[in-house]
Amino acid sequence: MNRTKFSMNALLVVVIIFSALAFVFTIVLVDLADRRAVNEYIPIEGTEYAIRYSSLEPNGLYKGPENTCTLVAEGNFGSDWGAFTVGGKLYLNEYTSTDLGVLLCSIVGVEMNTGEKTVLYRDTVLRGRCASGEPVCVRGAMLPADFPETNSLGRLYRLTQKNIASPNGGEVLFLDPQTLSVVYTVPDDNVFSDGFAERYLQKPLAEVER
Asked: For residue 4, is it within any domain?
């Protein structure tokens, strides 16, 4: 009787151990399956540079072909709204986030020979060029990814910033193509609306100024 009881207890222990091992093994497999490797290489038109998002290499600005490219400047740069070069520097959007998780954007210039990075305009998003060639930017607006109308943390952040007046509003800036100084400003209540390109990018500056 005692031997039978011992055998049952031993069997129960073995079953528990194997069940625990199977559970851990299943969790590990699911975790490994969920880790999708990210490796996006996005060339910047008209240059030998590209933006890379990777789970294996640092995110940043790279120079050269995809398989042999070298890191120029580390950072989370944006490729969606254009980039341009002036005087040996490449200007593009760089994204950062606050401790509250609010996504921010600044226009930065990266020295193409050294990789040195400087901020041109903080809390400003490059949107492209207008028909007459001036770079067009948006300043003083929260990014759509922050869900400014519904995100309570975003609303809290907005209250601490003097240059952010409303959830969707801001200023549209037109820059001199060479000096990159602001040459014209337009207030807009919905700077990230679908009609932005039609209102600003598809027109020359002279037409926007009318």
From this structure: no
Span 12-46, pLDDT tens digits: 545 455 554 444 444 444 444 444 667 789 998 88
38 is in which domain, residue-wise?
A: 9-209
Strand 182-188 with 170-175, pairing: antiparallel
The overall longest dimension of the chain from CA atoms, in Å, is: 101
- Residue 167 main-chain phi, psi, to 5 deg: -60, -40
Angle, CA 163 vertex, CA 159 and CA 167 arms, to 5°: 60
Tally of CB atoms within 10 A around 60:
21
Q: What does the angle CA 190 – CA 197 – CA 209 come to, to the nearest 5 degrees?
A: 80
Residue 118 lies in a domain: yes
Cβ burial 74-110 (10 Å sphere, 16+ → b, else e): ebebbbebbbbbbeebbbbbbbeeeeeebebbbbbbb
With pLDDT > 90 as the criterion, what percentage of the chain qualifies? 46
- 58-110 pLDDT tens trace: 999 999 998 899 999 999 998 767 789 898 899 999 999 888 788 889 999 99
Residue 3 maps to a domain: no
Beta bridge partners of 87: none
Q: Is residue 2 situated within a structural domain?
A: no
d(CA 194, CA 210): 21
